[in-house]
Amino acid sequence: MSVLDNIMVGRHHLLKNNFLTGSLYWLTGARTEELAHRRKVEEIIDFLDLQSVRKATAGTLPYGLRKRVELARAMALEPNLILLDEPMAGMNFEEKEDMARYIVDLNEEFGMAVMMIEHDMGVVMDISHRVMVLDFGRKIAEGDPAAVLADPHVKRAYLGEEDEVLVDPDDTPAAESAA
Length: 179
Description:
With 179 residues, the protein is mainly alpha-helical.
């Protein structure tokens, strides 16, 4: 399917006309309804900068563009809350920057709450209002990004911690004593 068709699929549940009324396309308002949905899809295409690939087959697009099409299809549903599972996975730096901007704008311009699972700590800390950190399925920290990043449990779980080496100053290593 084309990019445009993929996004229109996301609007399917919003269609009011059914098989019977849709068959009378010109008489029942189905045409007007379809045009209204197409206008919404055009807004999404403009927002995600997909104009140049609107007629392309979605499966043939580069990875970063396919991820944007997936986001567009989710946006077409018009949810109050959008759940994203690793939206930056497998992307290069430029694609990650673009996707981060789209996610922030999705929240600010469209008013959608965004909950995201992401392992790129830099991205999470840059775009999140609140962060929850899990370690093997157990919550170890929650709050604003700066506080969570400073949490010792988070540092230990994700950044590692150096083992302290305690050396008695009176003890000399075996190699030195043999000399």
